[in-house]
Prior knowledge:
Helix content: 40-55%
Shape: elongated
Number of strands: 8
Number of helices: 11
Largest sheet: 8 strands, mixed
Amino acid sequence: xxxxxxxxxxxxxxxxxxxxxxxxxxxxxxxxxxxxxxxxxxxxxxxxxxxxxxxxxxxxxxxxxxxxxxxxxxxxxxxxxxxxxxxxxxxxxxxxxxxxxxxxxxxxxxxxxxxxxxxxxxxxxxxxxxxxxxxxxxxxxxxxxxxxxxxxxxxxxxxxxxxxxxxxxxxxxxxxxxxxxxxxxxxxxxxxxxxxxxxxxxxxxxxxxxxxxxxxxxxxxxxxxxxxxxxxxxxxxxxxxxxxxxxxxxxxxxxxxxxxxxxx
Length: 264
């Protein structure tokens, strides 16, 4: 997976930053401050306003920083992972590569990284945002310098549309369990309707033990398993009344072993 595939912003990364109280902002607000009434970027993405940080901390001589830092995750097909901060420089006022300065961009990135050095993981690629029309003109400039200066290959021009389309809300990436929940529920329901329901109780025991091991290590997976298990168990209690003595005993043992989740 490329670093920028299936990206979601993570506001919690930013709100937990050591410098959040100094320079908290939102990405669209910084964009509107620098480019009034343009409404380039979508709302809802918390960020660190690095220019504001410099104004408050270095009142005499302010060093160059990128404009903003946001929190991001990648989605692996099941869950959001790999939390880190992404440095973003807004260049929507540029119409092409004129006046772009490699040394200036490098200084901005390096100084921002030094500020965030003890504040969590930083993405090793850096985003420079241009208007959609300017993006096509500046790509060559970035590519040429990347061939001459290897480190510059991690400096990436993005269009406004790329930012809005590629960095999505975490709500766009629902948790998908690693466990095949449909297969699990079908198997349990089939065993519950059989004449011999002891195998059903054995599988309930297995899945309760499996879920319990995941409760704190993988809470989303735990919830995905335990929710249908409890529903199936409630159906079992209501619909199955002709239990054998052995079945009744095993069901009561399950209730004693897992009283939080099932009861008789």
